[in-house]
Amino acid sequence: MKWWLYILLLANGQYYVGSTSNLERRIVQHKAWKVIATKGKLPLELLFTREYETLSEARSAEYQLKKKKSRKYIELFMNA
Predict the structure, then answer these.
(1) How many CB atoms lie within 10 A of CB 3?
(2) How confident is the model at residue 80, as a pLDDT?
(3) Which residues, in sequence order, are CB contacts of 69 under 8 Å at separation 6+?
(4) Sheet strands side by side (includes 3-9)
(5) Of 65, 67, 69, 66, which is closest to residue 77 (Cα–Cα)?
(6) 0.85 cut: is pTM over it?
(7) Cα-flanking dihedrals φ and ψ of residue 21, to 5°?
């Protein structure tokens, strides 16, 4: 099974970083207001995805991005 790290740009200008095994389903959930963290911050735009072989790799990358709490770090990660 493949895992995805994804980064969304929310209507308020913030980034949302997440990981999932089913990217299409997860984006639909975000757009349908079924994700509390992004609810009310629509529209959103999918800016970045990266595929990983394991859940632990995807979650580790997600954790590293969230741990930095830096817009600049997320932008550098997307452009690397």
Answers:
(1) 21
(2) 87
(3) none
(4) 15-20, 3-9, 45-52
(5) 65
(6) yes
(7) -95, -15
CA distance 51 to 35: 21
Count the neighbouring beta carbons within 10 Å of the beta carbon of residue 1.
Answer: 7
What lies within 8 Å, CB to CB, of 74 at 6+ separation is 7, 15, 17, 65, 68
DSSP string across 10-76:
-TTS-EEEEEES-HHHHHHHHHTT--TTTTT--S-EEEEEEEESSHHHHHHHHHHHHHHT-HHHHHH
Per-residue pLDDT of the chain (80 residues; tens, 9 = 90+): 899 999 999 999 999 999 999 999 999 999 999 999 999 999 999 999 999 999 999 999 999 999 998 999 999 999 98
Which residues are bridge partners to 8 per DSSP? 16, 46
Q: Which pLDDT does position 73 carry in this prediction?
A: 95
